[in-house]
Description:
Structural class: mainly alpha
Radius of gyration: 17 Å
Number of helices: 6
Shape: elongated
Strand content: under 5%
Oligomer: single chain
Order of helices and strands: HHHHHH
Amino acid sequence: MFNSIFKKLNGQDPDNDKPKQVATAVMLLYIGFILSMITDWLDGIGIIPFLVVFIVISAVITAISAGKKWARILMILFVLFNLLSFGFTLAQLLSQGVKEKLTVLVIVLYAIEIIIELLALRLLFSKAANVWFNEQREDVTT
Length: 142
């Protein structure tokens, strides 16, 4: 995962045929993922759930980068779950009137993460991205 990021940053991208929308979406997903990990850590997540989330989300983003259509669908489900979770958390905090600085920081980071994820999803389902994902599927089946 990180090896491919370093290759891309050094201009040694093996996926030259990947549309800019997909490459940008993958980078946005990684940024959102980092924010998610920071938010989880600040929120006091245990080490085992932290590692499980890290492994699963890393694998899904890597699969998206490789052109796997199922990973895009799974990412939609993850983002929808994140959005619902954010809504319930925000409603709970507003009803209880919690004014802790850490809680406000977590909510702000969470909101930024969701916005980034939604932007990434928009790019992943753009016309150019759809064509590329369909081509990847045809390459596998032929």
